[in-house]
């Protein structure tokens, strides 16, 4: 998938996090739990969809969980595109952590939490490793991007953790550095652009349309 000078097709991947949920407000670890959007979350999705529709995407893929499916549906209704749902784009399964607040996780699983923050491979709550999330999600994104026309745009509607690991994998970053990418706000997105040397991060945690970068090396 990493491009070469004679095969760069100038494609873009927009990785869009779902809108707000009640568990987001409560700082509860959602993981693969199927939580719905709040009214505010639906409003966020509608506002963001109006912006993303201006990018004229060629395809939309999404996690099959309710919060991502409903978010994706807002863009689909504006573009007329169908949404391809794939469970491989779900958030990290985090076992016993799911449903716990941040403070509860730190109190009950402090050593595990600290090891994860240090960049060590940790099965949070007995769940998936971040590399395993990337193993399932990144190939789905790559296959979908391969189907784009030259200069085409793919929108991926997923979850904060899954988006971070997918970006890390597509950029070829070492897993222990993925946390450095930082989180995405609800209904914000990141943009990857194709270059002759592979994928490049163009925008991160954006809430407005990407602007061209002029003279970034001078």
Automatic annotation (TrEMBL):
Bilayer-spanning residue ranges: none
PROSITE patterns tied to this protein: PG_MUTASE
CDD domains: HP_PGM_like
Residues noted as binding substrate in the record, renumbered to the chain: 17-24, 67
GO molecular function terms noted in the UniProt entry: phosphatase activity
Active site location: 18, 91
Gene3D superfamilies tied to this protein: Phosphoglycerate mutase-like
UniProt xrefs under SUPFAM superfamilies: Phosphoglycerate mutase-like (SSF53254)
GO terms under cellular component: cytoplasm
Record-linked InterPro entries: His_Pase_superF_clade-1, His_PPase_superfam, PG/BPGM_mutase_AS, PGM_Phosphatase
Domain of life of the native organism: Bacteria
PANTHER family: BROAD-SPECIFICITY PHOSPHATASE YOR283W-RELATED, GLUCOSYL-3-PHOSPHOGLYCERATE PHOSPHATASE
UniProt-recorded name of the protein: Histidine phosphatase family protein
Source organism: Streptomyces boncukensis
């Amino acid at each position: 998938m990493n491009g070469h000078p004679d095969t760069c097709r100038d494609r873009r991947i927009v990785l869009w996090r779902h809108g707000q949920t009640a568990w987001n407000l409560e700082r509860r670890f959602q993981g693969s739990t199927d939580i719905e959007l709040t009214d505010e979350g639906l409003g966020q999705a509608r506002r963001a969809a109006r912006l993303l529709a201006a990018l004229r995407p060629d395809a939309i893929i999404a996690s099959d969980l309710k919060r991502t499916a409903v978010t994706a549906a807002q863009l689909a209704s504006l573009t007329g595109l169908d949404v391809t749902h794939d469970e491989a784009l779900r958030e990290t399964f985090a076992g016993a952590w799911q449903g716990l607040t941040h403070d509860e996780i730190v109190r009950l699983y402090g050593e595990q939490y600290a090891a994860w923050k240090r960049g060590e491979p940790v099965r949070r709550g007995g769940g998936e490793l971040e590399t395993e999330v990337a193993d399932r999600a990144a190939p789905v994104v790559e296959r979908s991007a391969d189907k784009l026309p030259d200069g085409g745009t793919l929108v991926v509607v997923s979850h904060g953790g899954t988006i971070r690991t997918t970006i890390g994998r597509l950029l070829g970053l070492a897993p222990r550095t993925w946390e450095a990418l930082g989180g995405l706000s609800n209904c914000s997105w990141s943009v990857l652009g194709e270059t002759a040397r592979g994928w490049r991060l163009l925008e991160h945690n954006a809430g407005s349309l990407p602007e061209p970068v002029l003279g970034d090396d001078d």
